[in-house]
Amino acid sequence: MPEGDTVWNTARVLHRALAGSRITDSDFRVPQLATTDLTGWTVRESASRGKHLLLRLTAPDGADWTLHSHLRMDGAWRAYAPGERWSGRPAHLIRVVLRSPGAVAVGYHLHELALVPTAEEDRLVGHLGPDLLGPDWDPAEAVRRLGADPEQTIGEALLDQRALAGVGNLYKCEVLFLRGVSPWTPVGAVPDLTGMVSLAQRLLAANRGRWTQSSTGSLHRGQTSYVYGRRAQPCRRCGTTIRKQELGERVTYWCPVCQPEHPDAPSPG
Question: Which of 4, 53, 60, 161 is 20 to 30 A from 199, alpha carbon to alpha carbon?
Answer without folding.
Answer: 53
